[in-house]
Design a protein that fits this description.
Blueprint lengths: L2 E5 L4 H5 L5 H11 L4 E5 L16 E4 L14 H10 L5 E5 L1 H9 L3 E4 L5 E10 L1 H5 L9 E8 L1 E5 L4 E6 L7 E6 L2 E6 L7 H7 L3 H9 L4 H7 L8 H4 L1 H13 L1
Parallel strand pairs: 1-2, 1-3, 3-4, 4-11
Antiparallel strand pairs: 5-8, 6-7, 6-9, 9-10, 10-11
Length: about 250
C-alpha cells in the first residue's frame, strides 16, 4: 500500500471559503490509483504531529492562493515544514507554490515574474536536454501546454537543481533536486488541475466560458490553444503519473 502525505499550503481562512489546493491532488491521485492512501495536513493551521510521516512513501506540497511569496515572514510555517520534510529521505513533489518553496528553502530565489500573471495554459513549455532524459517527463513531447496560474516564479535555481523545462513566460517551469538525501520534483504549472478548475479559482471573464468546458469541448479547447486529448487525465497529469511510479519504485 502506497501512502502519500499532502501538505495543504493554503491558510485556514482560505480553506473556510473553499480554496483547498489539496482537493485537486486528492481527486487526481484517486483517479490515477484508487488504491493509494492519502493524508492531508496544513502547517498554517498549527504544528504538524511528529508522527505525521510514519508510513508515508511520498510527500506533496500544493499550490497556494495566499498573497505572500514563499520567502515572506508569513510563510515561515511552510518553510519549516519543508525543512523537516527534506530530512525524511522520501520523494517530494511540489506544484507552483510548492516548487517556489523548495527553491527558497534550498537556497535558490523567487520573485514576481516580469511578464506578469501566467493564467489558463502555460504554453510552449520546452524540456531541456536534462528534461528529455528525466523520468519526470517520460511520455511528454518536447513542447506542450498544461494548466497554470501564477504570478511568482523561481528566478534562481538552488544548488544541485536541474532545470527540466521552461517557456518564454517563466524560464523555470520544472526542476528537480536529487542530491544530499533530497529527492524533489516540481513544476510551476499545475498537472493536478483541470482547466475547469481554473475557471472556478480565478475570476477571468475573458477566458472563463472556454475554461469551464474545455476539458471536454474540442472547440473551446482549441480556442485556448490545446485539445481535449491533451487535457485528458493521463496526459495533463503525466508528471504526477511518473512521480507516483518513482515513489512506488523507491518503495
Amino acid at each position: 500500500m502506497t501512502t502519500i502525505l499532502i501538505i495543504e499550503s493554503n491558510t485556514p481562512d482560505l480553506l473556510a471559503i473553499g480554496k483547498s489546493a489539496s482537493a485537486f491532488f486528492l481527486r487526481t491521485f484517486q483517479a490515477l490509483d484508487p488504491a493509494l492512501t492519502l493524508k492531508v495536513v496544513c502547517p498554517y493551521a498549527g504544528p504538524i504531529s511528529p508522527d505525521a510521516y510514519e508510513g508515508v512513501d511520498g510527500i506533496v506540497y500544493t499550490g497556494s492562493a495566499v498573497q505572500w511569496g514563499t520567502d515572506a515572514p508569513e510563510a515561515a510555517p511552510l518553510r519549516a515544514e519543508m525543512e523537516r520534510t527534506f530530512t525524511q529521505n522520501r520523494p517530494v513533489w511540489g506544484s507552483c507554490n510548492g516548487m517556489q518553496l523548495a527553491a527558497d528553502v534550498l537556497g535558490g530565489g523567487t520573485g514576481d515574474s516580469p511578464n506578469g500573471v501566467e493564467f489558463g495554459l502555460a504554453k510552449a513549455i520546452s524540456t531541456t536536454d536534462q528534461g528529455v532524459q528525466h523520468d519526470m517527463m517520460a511520455g511528454r513531447t518536447t513542447s506542450f501546454e498544461v494548466p497554470c496560474i501564477h504570478r511568482v516564479e523561481v528566478q534562481k535555481l538552488p544548488k544541485d537543481a536541474e532545470l527540466i523545462a521552461g517557456n518564454a513566460h517563466s524560464p523555470v517551469q520544472a526542476m528537480t533536486v536529487e542530491a544530499n538525501g533530497i529527492d524533489f520534483w516540481g513544476t510551476q504549472y499545475h498537472p493536478e488541475m483541470r482547466l475547469s478548475d481554473l475557471a472556478v479559482v480565478a475570476n477571468a471573464p475573458d477566458l472563463g466560458a472556454d475554461l469551464t468546458i474545455a476539458d471536454e469541448n474540442e472547440a473551446a479547447a482549441k480556442h485556448l490553444g490545446t485539445s481535449v486529448a491533451a487535457m485528458s487525465l493521463h496526459n495533463r497529469a503525466r508528471e504526477l503519473v511518473n512521480w507516483l511510479d518513482h515513489v512506488k519504485a523507491r518503495g
